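2024-03-11 09:14:02 INFO queue: dequeued item GNAT-family acetyltransferase (TIGR03103 family), len=609
2024-03-11 09:14:02 INFO validating residues
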Amino acid sequence: MSDSKKQPPAASRGRDVDGQRLKRMRETGAKPPISQPNQKSEGWKPDFTLDCGWGRLVFAQTFDQLSDVAGALREEKADRRDIAVYVRDPHVLLASAPLEVFLDPSHTYRLNLSSYRPSKKTPKGYFIRRLTSRADAVAINRIYASRGMVQVPPDFFWSQRDARSMIYFVAEDERTGEILGTATGVDHAQAFGDPERGYSLWCLAVDPQARHPGIGEALVRRLAEYAEARGSAFLDLSVLHDNVQATALYEKLGFQRVQFFSVKRRNSINERLYTGPETDDGLNPYATIIVREARRRGIQVEILDAPGGFFRLTQGGVSVRCRESLSEHTSAVAMSICDDKATTRRVVEQAGVKVPPQISADADEDRIAAFLEEHGRLVVKPARGEQGRGISIGLTSMEEIADAIEVAKQTSNDVLIEAMVEGHDLRLVVINYKLVAAAIRRPPFIIGDGQSTVAELIAAQSRRREAATGGESKIPIDGETQRTIAAAGKSLDSVLALNEELTVRKAANLHTGGTIHDVTGEVHPALVEAATKAARAIDIPVVGIDFMTKSPREPDYAFIEANERPGLANHEPQPTVERFIDLLFPLSMPEPTRQALRKGSRAGEKTKG
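2024-03-11 09:14:37 INFO prediction written
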């Protein structure tokens, strides 16, 4: 090896490494305000804030005084979340308004676009495009709601569709046209004349029920490539310090953590970020969402048994024990009616609610055979039970029925056989005898990639459902799953073609991998009337009524069952939890809700008159 190719001494290499590290710290560390004339570029805008619909981005590097940054945060509007970004000396800003602002517990990551390399893989089953319609805006809000994010007026999205400083990308399912994810980009140079030519990513969100892998990565890559094409030098983003899954994705794509800080205003939206960790470990999502809403209203919460979902709510001398959405307001009689599906059916049928034909599994074989011949396809289910356990659907032979009865008896000694009603599984949540939410529940299905087996696709889909629901939803590979797969002419070892779909269970229960899709705004009045009629017949104040229906827009239906403990966490953006707390503690109801109810009451009286 020639002298020209010899490596420098170790000491020199160490100095070079230290020099590179110091250079990187200077380039990516907290910087002073852009105040010198030679730092400013064409289009420069001092004291700049950008309205993003969900709140404003306060670019602190454009402010000369930290007190002015605090003043900008004080102008935050109701139900919005402003963020001061690139804050230098955040400790000084916090000291100037300690009761108003707090240091956001998020890390900032930066992708150097000059070293970014596009992926050789292309999205399968979906594609990334820009926002093009008001329907896209509505879909983005649906995803925001499912992720607990602040929603944006749809007209705002539409008004910004041609803006040069901000862009919205969405991921669209190739087959259904459904919006699966979204990301927002902000061009700093276009926004305020940033001399560093920066770009930032905001509001990356993927529908928790999306079945396609890699949607988040595809959205980030699309935005990075878009920013690079526009001459941007880097792409920044902010991620909560404990979001391990997102952080792993960003580091995989080449993002590096940089020392920038963000400051937010203390408000009800940000509360969990500055009040410290909640002592609710062990509560499932259905209990957690109620407990959080109660605390937000100043209601005292006492966790009685976290694994079982039991807690006590207390305010103003009123104390109510709950198990998730089941409270002391539900009587033991009402609960007993719901607990026995045969009893539930008789009670609602007497009230005029339409029910499907049904017999007991204890009937003799000839009667069961005649019932099968009459209806063609049957459902076998335990008379008692929940979460879809022991249910078999679409049975067409006496052998299948016999096997299904044995499975159902593992859940309940009493087993029912019911005529199968074709259509959609519709859940209607009725609180205080008013419809609050309606949603179509769909059975779990997988999408082929041309390489993976059915078993591998189920495992991957199950992992995504578990991650999206806090471990509450997963697809079991049991007799029902294997029977459904076999009925489609497949096995667990089969390899599905690219984009080939396979339904792996007939039941649409969320706990066994099903998904839920809000239809509250389009449900037919006849279905609403039937659901409230069923709730009054059972005399239960909080209930999930399940119908089978050809379409939520049509009046035809068949009653399936009533759930005395419906999962309220499954129905965003509908205010199921808010109405539940209103029922328990009417005096805690926010004033805007009171005014809306008073207006609705007056409108109803005028209509009757």
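2024-03-11 09:14:37 INFO annotate: Residues 258 and 587 are 47 Å apart (CA to CA).
2024-03-11 09:14:38 INFO item closed
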